[in-house]
Design a protein that fits this description.
Elements lengths: L6 H6 L2 H24 L10 E7 L7 E12 L6 E8 L3 E8 L5 E8 L18 H4 L2
Antiparallel strand pairs: 1-2, 1-5, 2-3, 3-4
Amino acid sequence: MPPWTPTRELRKRNFLPRRMGYMIKTLEQEAYEKALQDKSYPEFKPGDVVEVKLALPENQRRTIPVRGIVIAIRNRGIRTSFTILNNIPGGGNIERTFPLFCPTIQELRVVQKQRIKARRAKLYYLCDRKPSEFKV
């Protein structure tokens, strides 16, 4: 009998998927800790007005500022993302979702803390409101 467990035995006992899940979880945790050391962002919550400076992938020197009210934050370790809502005159409401640890985000700045009183974690109901009620 070999000193290791044969692969067919691992599949039979459903051990292989659990082992792989643990390895992926460990790798994601390491990547998350490294990303936290590389970039530090201010704390923000749903209801805060933020300004994100994005670098265009085709031209790294040019940056685009995007401003909006945070309507959702999804905390998923290295895959954490947030959604902002803004109104463009003549274009209507625009929702944009950004991964927090994306290399194209050069700067994240909180412009205003909780302009509206947010009593819930996701503010998707603002998408149906008039722009004057949440205007940034």
